[in-house]
């Protein structure tokens, strides 16, 4: 851990005195002065543009690529990069755990639309990032992870804090790199940053052996460009668009299904316009929450396992499903045999490998979501006749409302808490969540109106995503945008140490812990499918989260009854800094509707006896 | 329709804080699953719409897929990792450099359904070091090498079988004889069967490698390069490679 650059004497002699002083490490002040003098004399200053070490090339590449904020944790093998950050304009947010760094970077990317960047050291630092990288991979979130590595001559020797990071992360990254050359490391980092955002986004990783980052180099990174072998077709094929347009025109019960790709490609405006212009109802997937305003009459909210009954009815009965930017995850489709069983499928996606992967596409359209939708609309000579179908969808909304029972004498219902927050916040407030029952209630009972206001872990289902995501989201969000994290007791317990980061940075976030003293979704499944044998689901051993929050230096509140909700919500939202409300909710409350795993979407259960 | 943008309060999904009169104690209101209309359509396990009455288990077939890749460390592990992660049924995988410096060719034989083979090709093409992916026709030129070691008690008979399969003897001693056979998969299988009578001690098979026949590039758009320093050694026909458009 105490290793530091130990340049050989002859190398030092070739450099200017400022550098030489810097390299000794003990004389930081003097070297800063010397560097200042060099700049002041007006002589050519290499410090302004030129890099001198691999680590400086890494940092220069990040700056050139447009990165602004990094989330990370220090450590031995990444130390040279951190040292280069010392003089950089980049903001670094130290997280309590590397998993938090990865989730924060992920959420930062979701909210800002630019790739988030996280850093960790080798070995345990890198493996701690793994959950967050896998999460970003499953949700196709642009993210760059930089990991330190033991010096390359020690790679393979099971050195202290060595892990085969590129090996470990190969299956969960879009691509990863082992940067063994100080002269090209900057270009590699730039390429990795660009690649993460290009086409279908995803996480990339650059493993940085310590000798690469310590080594001298004068090779400034070039512009961040994606590699030549990575080619993306943004413009869909004319023929594909034409036949798809015919299919939509003749449909009687068309349904749009917006996936996360609509949000990621910033195609919400085109997508909404298409729905409204042609009078086609819209269901979304969970990652696409907010792509269509949920209070719009065409919007059926999100479909899938815990999606709305009306979205699932519409999916089951549509004769033409126009799916945009979705990978047909099993939590959306249920069993594929019964998914949209009578629909011709138009599938728009930028990733050809998603076409016909899970659900066969009758009309594939490969291209950027916004471009494809506009082209499809332009190609259509008429809109499908959908009046009856729209009325049918409306009647399903009336038949299957999202609702819950709230007699005053019952324990507090979590849905009530979500609605109270929704009412107390602005339309563009951001919601982050952990994973579990609370996540579903937050998705069901909040009316989302804008894209990039729903930040959650979908594909991987990572408990503990909520708090670090709130940190990342807060930093990426506009100053006047509120950030609310809904968490469960089990989920909060996994990453609540990141509250310390929110306190240190004075981040104005509100964490609403929907505490039912259970790992609630597990308990719900045990009740439904394991005869109520609640093995290891009881979480009555959790600490008092309001006091825990106070211990971290945040504001802590506790709510047990309906009449305390409004005041607590207001107090937490008004508090300038992180606030945690421990809502003690009805431990028996369950999430419905529910499509059992592999079941038919149209047969969603409304209560346990229907499972 | 298009102008009616205003949200309809009456159909808002959120009932607000008013308790819904019909909400059961532990569930949601609405007609139960068997009271709803259900469509009669069906898809098969691959998500393809089929006749609801039809049995439609997709058929497996063998496909030879050729991938042109950048010859860099880790490329083989990325490809093999992709196959194990996605549970593709892989028969063989061979790899070697091509005439273009820095490029290598990976030849895969997979046993999959048509949608599965499609996925193999698309997922392969997504890997960053992969330049081009192509599936070879049935008439492609395919070859495999096997080296096998048999007991040496009957050298004459071993020699006869080796000649029948146009093989070569690599090593012959009093106790063991080692031969090599090249050819398509069927020929190799047959040869191994024939050698069984002597008692096979050890066997090493390479797996199939293949090129498209004639002028067709093996992967789409593939441009053959020239072997290293082919300009200087242009006299030597063995080391020179041409272009498809001569």
Automatic annotation (TrEMBL), chain A:
The lineage of its organism: Archaea, Methanobacteriati, Methanobacteriota, Stenosarchaea group, Halobacteria. This is Acetolactate synthase. It is an enzyme of class 2 (transferase). Residues 1-10, 34-51 have a biased composition (Low complexity). It comes from Halorussus gelatinilyticus. Residues 11-26 have a biased composition (Acidic residues). Pathway: Amino-acid biosynthesis; L-valine biosynthesis; L-valine from pyruvate: step 1/4; Amino-acid biosynthesis; L-isoleucine biosynthesis; L-isoleucine from 2-oxobutanoate: step 1/4. The keyword Acyltransferase does not apply. The keyword Metal-binding applies. Residues 1-51, 198-237 are annotated as: Disordered. GO terms for biological process: isoleucine biosynthetic process; L-valine biosynthetic process; sulfur compound biosynthetic process. PANTHER family: ACETOLACTATE SYNTHASE CATALYTIC SUBUNIT, MITOCHONDRIAL, THIAMINE PYROPHOSPHATE ENZYMES.
């Amino acid at each position: 851990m105490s290793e530091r650059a130990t340049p050989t004497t002859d190398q030092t002699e070739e450099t200017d005195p400022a550098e030489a002083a810097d390299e000794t490490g003990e004389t930081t002040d003097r070297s800063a002065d010397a560097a200042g003098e060099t700049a002041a004399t007006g002589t050519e200053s290499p410090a302004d543009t030129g890099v001198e070490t691999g680590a400086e090339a890494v940092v220069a590449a990040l700056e050139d690529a447009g990165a602004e904020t990094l989330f990370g944790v220090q450590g031995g093998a990444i130390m040279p990069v951190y040292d280069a950050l010392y003089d950089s304009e980049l903001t670094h947010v130290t997280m309590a755990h590397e998993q938090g760094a990865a989730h924060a970077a992920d959420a930062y990317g979701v909210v800002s639309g630019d790739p988030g960047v996280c850093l960790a050291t080798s070995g345990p630092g890198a493996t701690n990032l793994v959950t967050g990288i896998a999460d970003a991979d499953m949700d196709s979130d642009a993210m760059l992870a930089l990991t330190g590595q033991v010096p390359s001559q020690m790679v393979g020797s099971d050195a202290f804090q060595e892990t085969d990071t590129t090996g470990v992360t190969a299956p969960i990254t879009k691509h990863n790199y082992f940067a063994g050359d100080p002269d090209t490391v900057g270009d590699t980092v730039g390429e990795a940053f660009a690649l993460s955002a290009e086409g279908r986004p995803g996480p990339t990783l650059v493993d940085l052996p310590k000798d690469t980052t310590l080594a001298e180099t004068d090779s400034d990174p070039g512009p961040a460009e994606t590699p030549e072998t990575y080619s993306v077709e943004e413009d869909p094929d004319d023929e594909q668009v034409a036949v798809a347009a015919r299919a939509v025109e003749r449909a009687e019960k068309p349904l749009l299904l917006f996936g996360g790709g609509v949000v990621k490609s910033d195609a919400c405006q085109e997508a909404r316009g298409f729905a409204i212009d042609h009078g086609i109802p819209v269901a979304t997937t969970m990652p696409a929450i907010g792509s269509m305003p949920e209070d719009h009459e065409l919007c059926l909210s999100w479909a899938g396992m815990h999606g709305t009954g009306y979205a699932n009815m519409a999916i089951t009965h549509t004769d033409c499903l126009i799916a945009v930017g979705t990978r047909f995850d099993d939590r959306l489709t249920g069993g594929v045999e019964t998914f949209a069983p009578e629909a011709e499928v138009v599938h728009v996606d930028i990733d050809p490998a998603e076409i016909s992967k899970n659900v066969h596409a009758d009309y594939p359209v490969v291209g950027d979501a916004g471009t494809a939708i506009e082209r499809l609309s332009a190609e259509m000579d008429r809109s499908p006749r959908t009046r009856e179908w729209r009325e049918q969808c409306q009647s399903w909304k009336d038949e299957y409302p999202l609702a819950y029972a709230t007699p005053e004498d019952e324990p507090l219902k979590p849905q009530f808490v979500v609605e109270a927050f929704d009412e107390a916040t602005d339309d563009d407030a951001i919601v982050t969540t952990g994973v579990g029952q609370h996540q579903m209630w937050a998705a069901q009972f909040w009316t989302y109106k804008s894209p990039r206001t729903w930040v959650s872990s979908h594909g991987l289902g990572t408990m503990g995503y909520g708090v670090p995501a709130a940190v990342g989201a807060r930093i990426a969000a506009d100053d006047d945008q509120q950030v609310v994290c809904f968490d469960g007791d089990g989920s909060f317990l996994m990453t609540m140490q990141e509250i310390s980061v929110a306190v240190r940075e004075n981040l104005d976030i509100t964490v609403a812990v929907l505490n039912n003293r259970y790992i609630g979704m597990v308990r719900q499944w045990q009740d439904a499918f394991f005869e109520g044998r609640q093995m290891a689901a009881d979480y009555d051993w959790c600490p008092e989260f309001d006091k825990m929050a106070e211990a971290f230096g945040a504001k802590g509140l506790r709510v047990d009854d309906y009449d305390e909700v409004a005041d607590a919500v207001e107090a937490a939202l008004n508090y300038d800094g992180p606030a945690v409300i421990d809502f003690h909710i009805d431990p028996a409350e369950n999430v419905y509707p529910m499509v059992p795993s592999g079941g038919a979407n149209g047969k969603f259960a409304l209560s346990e006896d229907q499972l | 329709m298009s102008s009616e943008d205003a949200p309809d309060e009456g159909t808002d999904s959120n009932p607000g804080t008013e308790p819904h009169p019909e909400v059961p104690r532990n569930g949601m209101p609405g007609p139960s699953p068997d009271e709803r209309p259900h469509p009669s359509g069906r898809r098969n396990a691959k998500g393809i719409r089929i006749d609801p009455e039809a049995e439609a288990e997709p058929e497996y077939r063998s496909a030879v897929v050729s991938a042109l890749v950048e010859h860099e460390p880790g490329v083989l592990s990325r490809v093999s990792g992709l196959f194990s992660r996605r549970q593709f049924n892989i028969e063989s995988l061979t790899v070697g450099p091509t005439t273009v410096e820095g490029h290598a060719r990976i030849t895969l034989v997979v046993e999959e359904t048509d949608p599965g083979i499609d996925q193999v090709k698309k997922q392969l093409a997504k890997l960053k070091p992969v330049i081009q992916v192509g599936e070879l026709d049935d008439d492609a030129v395919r070859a495999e090498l096997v080296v096998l070691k048999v007991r040496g008690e009957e050298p004459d008979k071993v020699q006869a079988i080796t000649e029948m399969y146009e093989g070569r003897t690599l090593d012959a001693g009093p106790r063991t004889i080692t031969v090599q056979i090249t050819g398509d998969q069927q020929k190799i299988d047959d040869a191994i069967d024939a050698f069984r009578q002597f008692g096979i001690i050890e066997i090493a098979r390479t797996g199939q490698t293949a090129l498209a026949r004639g002028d067709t590039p093996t992967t789409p758009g593939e441009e053959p390069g020239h072997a290293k320093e082919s300009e200087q050694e242009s006299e030597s026909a063995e080391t020179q490679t041409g272009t498809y458009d001569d």
